[in-house]
Design brief:
By secondary structure, the chain is α+β, with helices and mostly antiparallel strands. Helices cover 19% and strands 37% of the residues. Strand 12 and strand 13 form a beta hairpin.
Length: 397
């Protein structure tokens, strides 16, 4: 395997543990306020995007036990203090941490005046684009929706959201309560791009043995064919065995289709009083965005796109154009208008990856670090309702 050295900053907030078979470890510690010995009680202490979390006691102490060995982002969060993060390496021993929190300078948030009807409309869009519209999403319940700060800009058709405390989503499809600190969420209706960042903690919901068995089946269903499954299979060089096929993919933007922003503006301009113009721009909107699309054969293998880095357990993926990934053990149930499908290919689940910066970096648990590729097709459906903790291990097929 070729070796490629990258210099990059670990800016992603979802760095997660490495899978090993070592004994579990323990993290203990005490949280105090900066500049003194005053303990901070009831602070949330958790390993980001995993299922290990607790709250500090009255004396500021905490403990996380039974932690799967690996590298994590440990997060401490409480209102009134700046969020604290620290990378920790967990082995089969005990880590003892002393953490000091910095008081938070409270900034005045810009006041956005909206009606209750506008808030509900924005909230419904947020739920659809953050939680999803799948069968799993229908079984998700948001326990505290009013912690969301929602803002919609009509001129740019952009929805933004954030929270100052945990957004709690009870997922009765997979059996998790997901507590999400949403730093930022942006939905660009013109560009069709949704992006968000934040911190997540997974907690098992209580259930009967029968419910837990059903949840395990649904969790495996969510895992197999996912991007996490793909990245884990890639670095293990088990793509074919796991059901993945990847090809170099070339395409060009159709010059006969106007830019999306122009189409949206024209439809809004003529809506309601010029039917012929509306029909014309609807026809332009229905045109494919791409043409001259071609899958390069033969399929790629792991060594064509995978590179090691200077950091053990951290890998990079790189490819010259776009990467077309099919999962041959599931059929797609959604018709993606702009997703290319060869006529001779069965209706397998398929995704197209676009790199942002020439490469993407991921760890042994299949979590992308830093600039994540843009996903089209099947993986673009992956919302919170299908999200699993990074320490999740599937059953044997």
């Amino acid at each position: 395997m070729a070796r490629l050295t990258f210099r990059f900053a670990f800016i992603c907030c979802l760095l997660v543990p490495f899978a090993t078979k070592a004994q579990n470890g323990v993290i203990i510690g005490k949280i105090t306020a900066q500049g003194g010995t005053t303990p901070v009680a009831k602070a949330s202490v958790f390993l980001n995007n995993a299922s290990y979390g607790t709250a500090t006691a009255d004396d500021g102490t905490f403990s996380l036990r039974g932690v799967k060995p690996g590298q994590y982002d440990l997060v401490v969060s409480i209102l009134g203090y700046e969020e604290y993060t620290q990378k920790v390496q967990v082995n089969n021993n005990t880590l003892d941490l002393s953490i000091s929190l910095t008081p938070k300078v409270m900034m005045m948030r810009e006041v956005v005046i909206t009606t209750n009807a506008d808030w509900k409309k924005n909230y419904e869009q947020f739920k659809k684009e953050f939680i999803g519209i799948t069968d799993n999403a229908k079984l998700c319940k948001v326990a505290n929706p009013r912690v969301l700060n929602l803002s919609y800009t009509r001129r740019t058709q952009t929805l933004e959201a954030s929270t100052d405390e945990f957004l709690e989503v009870e997922n009765y499809a997979l059996g998790y309560k997901v507590k999400f600190l949403l730093k930022d969420f942006t939905s660009d209706n013109i560009g069709g791009i949704i992006s968000y960042s934040g911190r997540a903690l997974f907690e098992d919901l209580p259930g009967t043995p029968e419910q837990k068995l059903k949840w395990k089946v649904k969790r495996d269903e969510a895992y197999y064919g996912s991007s996490r499954h793909f990245y884990r299979s890639l670095y293990k060089n088990k793509l074919a065995e796991e059901g993945f096929v990847m090809c170099d993919f070339t395409r060009s933007i159709d010059p006969n289709r106007p830019p999306e922003a122009v189409i949206k503006r024209k439809l809004k301009q003529f809506n309601g009083y010029n039917r012929d113009s509306v029909m014309y721009w609807l026809q332009k909107e229905s045109m494919p965005r791409w043409y001259q699309e071609h899958l390069v054969k033969p399929p790629l293998v792991a060594r064509d796109v995978l590179r090691t880095t200077e950091q053990p357990g951290i890998y990079a993926i790189t490819f010259p154009h776009y990467l077309y990934v099919t999962y041959t053990k599931k059929m797609e149930t959604v018709d993606f208008k702009d997703l290319y499908r060869p006529l001779d290919m069965p209706n397998y689940e398929a995704s197209v990856l676009t790199l942002n910066g020439g490469y993407a970096v991921f760890d042994m648990n299949g979590t992308v670090i830093g600039n994540a590729p843009l996903n089209e097709g099947t993986w673009s459906k992956s919302k919170l309702s299908n999200m699993l903790p990074v320490d999740y291990e599937p059953s044997d097929k």
